[in-house]
Amino acid sequence: MIRRCGAEDTGKIYGIINEAAKAYDGVITPDCYHHPYMPEEELEQEMKRVTFYGWEDNGELVGVMGIEPIKGVTLIRHAYVLPQYQNRGIGDRLLNHLKELTTTPSLLVGTWAAAYWAISFYRKRGFSLLSDKDALLVKYWDIPPRQIETSVVMGIKICKN
To answer: What digits encode the pLDDT tens for the residues 89-99?
Structure first.
């Protein structure tokens, strides 16, 4: 079941992000990977502007995906599913839910260039790599230059009738 997450879910979201982000260890450059991947204070700041939706399995939050409308586009932010729940369609259902909520013409997602599994996930769902990723990352995200160098941006047009 998909539900909107609130401040009371901060601890669980923190756990999901940091557990799932362990997949980056040894894949992205060591200067970009740290533990915890997202400190709690950073998550609390993100939750002030990003709306998180989560997937519950038997009353337990096991996956999250955030959405942030900004400057005429919508960003997917912090999409993670606990490793033991991956490959069960949870990410697919969350992504489809966010697509339905999107009121802008474009949905963008940024990820690490080395995160081949994430790139594959979004490609299979109609997203394509965008060539102007540096300009997009500067315009829509607040990330350090090193993260810009090692990231990609993917996008999809949203057609609403």
So the answer is: 999 999 999 99
